[in-house]
Amino acid sequence: MKKREDMKLQNRVREFRAKQRLSQGDLGKAIGSSRQTISLIERGDYAPSIVLSLKIAQIFGAPVEEIFMLVEGEEEEDDEDEE
User: Fold this and answer.
1) Which string of DSSP letters, residue by residue, matches 15-78?
2) N or C: which terminus of the chain has fewer CB atoms within 10 Å of its end residue's CB?
3) Where residue 1 falls among pLDDT bands split at 50, 70, 90?
4) What does the pLDDT look like over 32-69, one tens digit per residue?
5) Is residue 82 in some structural domain?
6) Alpha carbons 80 and 70: distance in angstroms, whole number
7) 61 vs 5: CA distance, rounded Å
8) Mean pLDDT score of the chain
């Protein structure tokens, strides 16, 4: 039996950054962060704060929802009801 769905944050930071020909370091510096943080965000290993997300969107001149989006993850199953 399906119990709940996890929502996961996906992003298009790498795509937008490539279009503007910015390095991870350039973007990090522009938003007051580091290259490592941008790398973590792009890989989906770090969910940026709202403020950081808005700064990234401002640099790209795009609405934040075009860059960051919630998507449905895998559903967890309730195994107790299967007996």
Assistant:
1) HHHHHTT--HHHHHHHTT--HHHHHHHHHTS----HHHHHHHHHHHTS-HHHHEEEEEEEEEE-
2) C
3) very low
4) 999 999 999 999 999 999 999 999 999 999 999 999 99
5) no
6) 29
7) 32
8) 87
Long-range contacts of 48-56 (CB under 8 A, 24+ apart): 55/30, 55/31, 56/13, 56/27, 56/31
Question: What domain range is 47 assigned to?
Answer: 2-76
Q: Residue 4 — very low, low, confident or very high, per pLDDT cuts 50/70/90?
A: very low
Does residue 81 lie in a domain region?
no
pLDDT confidence band for 5 (50 / 70 / 90): low
Question: How many domains, the chain?
Answer: 1
CATH number at residue 39: 1.10.260.40
Q: At residue 58, what is the residue type?
A: Q
